[in-house]
Amino acid sequence: MKITLITIGKPRLQFVKDGLVFYVKRLRAFHTVTVVHCADAVTPQKVLTLIGQRFCIAADQHGRQMTSREFASFLEDKTVHGVSDIAVVIGGPDGLMPDVRQRADVLWSFGAMTFPHDVAMVLAVEALYRAATITAGHPYHRE
Predict the structure, then answer these.
(1) Which residues have C-beta within 8 Å of that of residue 135, sequence separation ≥ 6?
(2) Is the pTM of this model over 0.85?
(3) N or C, where is the chain less crowded by C-beta within 10 Å?
(4) How confident is the model over 12-18, as a mean pLDDT?
(5) Are 129 and 23 in contact (CB under 8 A)?
(6) What is the pLDDT of residues 27-61, one digit of tens each?
(7) Alpha carbons 61 and 110: distance in angstroms, whole number
(8) Backbone torsions φ then ψ of 62, nearest 5 degrees
């Protein structure tokens, strides 16, 4: 599967930069991964253009919450049904742009808590990596 992580804003915190490098490297063992950091002042049209025809999962506090297993099953189901190219969008400090939220195929929540968008970048990539390992049959420590 091709995964494009689209973020509004570049990570500013060093531990986030390190976390992204760490998990993207691991995720690339399972998928083709591209990371696109847009400027904070990016237009909704530019983000929509980056999403293009990809299946779009957008992080949103009001989105669907899934366990790691559920997320792995969700992604595997998409693959079985012909989805081979996804965009995962992390909004900026003010969240998702309304046009991007409306375009998303799925709104995905990391839980009831609010996280800084820098931290959400790492959470998203770690969740994608964990889902890939679960799908590949690697041992899952929660079982």
Answers:
(1) 30, 72, 75, 76
(2) yes
(3) C
(4) 94
(5) yes
(6) 999 999 999 999 999 999 999 999 999 999 999 98
(7) 7
(8) -100, 10
